[in-house]
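During the no-cost extension, the postdoctoral fellow (Dr. R.K.) reprocessed legacy sequence entries with the updated structure-token encoder. One reprocessed record is reproduced below for audit purposes.
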Amino acid sequence: MKDSSHKRHIAKAITWRCIGTLDTMLISWIITGDALIGVQIGLAEVVTKMVLYYLHERLWFRLNLDKETTNWRHIAKTISWRVVGTVDTMILAWWISGDPLIGLKVGMVEIITKMLLYYLHEKVWYRSNYGLSHRKTPSNSVADE
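Re-encoded structure tokens follow.
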């Protein structure tokens, strides 16, 4: 069976990055009071987050936990991604603003907003068969499309 999951993971990375970047820009703008710094922080993380998110998706796919359809899988992915994403955001916000406290503040606010947004994003994608060469049936068996 051909592994078509790469296009799915790329599509998930793109959709998540759009949501995540807008969230980062807004949070950074509110915290710094400077829209330009918010945009700079948001745009800087586009590349780093796209690469990190793709690698995160590949790792979770290789763990082969997709057979477990409980919310716990989504929660575990949400937490693991948030750790990676928050550290990246804090470093970028510190670097761009020149203030480590700004990096810390942006990162701490994002923990809440991003976990909620990511969980919702993951739930939507979990229901989608886009990029899969097979689909899950209600009984969790694999059926050819």
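The radius of gyration is 17 Å. Residues 5-127 form one domain. The remaining legacy entries will be reprocessed before the final report is submitted.
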